Amino acid sequence: QDKKANVVVIGTGGTIAGAGASSVNTAAYQSAVVPVDKIIAAVPEISKIANVRGEQIFQIGSESFNDERLLKLGKRVSELLKQSDVDGIVITHGTDTIEETAYFLNLTLKSDKPVVVVGSMRPGTALGADGALNLYDAVLVASSKDAAGKGTLVVMNDEIHSGRDVTKTNSFKVETFRSPYGPLGYVVEGKLMFYRLPARPHTTQTEFDIDQINSLPRVDIAYNYGNVSRAAYDAFVTAGAKAIIHDGTGNGSVAEQIVPVLQEVRSKGLQVVRATRTGSGVVIRNGEQNDDKFDWVVTDDQNPQKARILTALALTKTNDSKELQKILWKY
Ligand SMILES: NC(=O)CC[C@H](N)C(=O)O
């Protein structure tokens, strides 16, 4: 690179901003305590690859992300992306909900500039801390023209993932982020190596624009298991949900006592979205249940938490179940 890129690192908290009482605390520590400027300063190698400045937007565990914070983050990223003196963005983020934030940004940002979400599984104080290298790699990706136009990316553990696909699969290991179809590429020794491209529309190719969205309709997720009852569904209806993601067993199957509940939910105007709790695969329309008859919709391969994000965005555009189904299959 002849000229160093300008990258803004937005701090939101998480373990990458965490600190433990001792170096052997790899999994027990306080997250979201180290300011973003201190996290950047701890990796002086970064100044050789980019001009970086930090901006602290939140200092939270990512489990505490809500729609309001998601919108605030998205709007700030969008604002920065419009500045000619900003070439790329890195967001330091707790890993628990990275996949939701990354999918949301992937669907709503209107820019080709690289946006990279990064976290760590061990705090900076731990033996084998992974945050410094992850941050270095994230800045590298955010500075690179090769990463432009590929949607919002998640960089962790030497891998570059699409924000659409990536999901956290292990509660404590460094090797926790996986995409069902593999990462888009690697970052090794300061080099980006891409092998795949996202097939689904993202960022500039979608109908969702963060600048135009000021609130998200309430969408809840009802987890299913043996002996499941209607209690959660009723509570979500009472709370004012506009859609319920039925986090179903297997292929989004519905227990016999829940079938009439979902019919009732739909008759009250809420959308019913069948998803799978298995962690992978697509839910087949009219497979386990007659979706045509009940006017329910199915997820494609989005896990329930990603389906919640997409459904909420879809409901800002339409409340027609056929349109919603098309959107779930498109993105
Ligand atoms: N590894 C992590 O980042 C987890 C810490 C915290 N629960 C969070 O998601 O922010």
Low-confidence stretches: none
Q: What value does the Rg take, in angstroms?
A: 20 Å
The number of helical runs is 10
Largest sheet: 8 strands, mixed
Active site: 15, 95
Domain L-asparaginase N-terminal: 6-196
Family: Belongs to the asparaginase 1 family.
Keywords: Hydrolase, Signal
Could you characterize the architecture of this molecule?
This protein is α/β, with parallel strands linked by helices and 331 residues long. The chain has ten helices and 14 strands. The strands form three sheets. Strands 2-1-3-4-5-6-9-10 form an eight-stranded mixed β-sheet, sandwiched between helices. A four-stranded parallel β-sheet has the order 11-12-13-14, with helices on both faces. Helix 4 packs parallel to helix 9 (304-315) and helix 9 (304-315) packs across helix 10 (321-330). The two termini are 34 Å apart. It binds glutamine. Glutamine binds at residues 13-15, 31, 61-63, 94-96, 119, 121. InterPro entries: AsnASE_II, Asp/glu_Ase-like_sf, Asparaginase/glutaminase-like, Asparaginase/glutaminase_AS1, Asparaginase/glutaminase_AS2, Asparaginase_C, L-asparaginase_C, L-asparaginase_N. This is Asparaginase.
Short description:
This protein has 331 residues and is an alpha/beta fold. Helix content is 28%, strand content 21%. It contains ten helices and 14 strands.
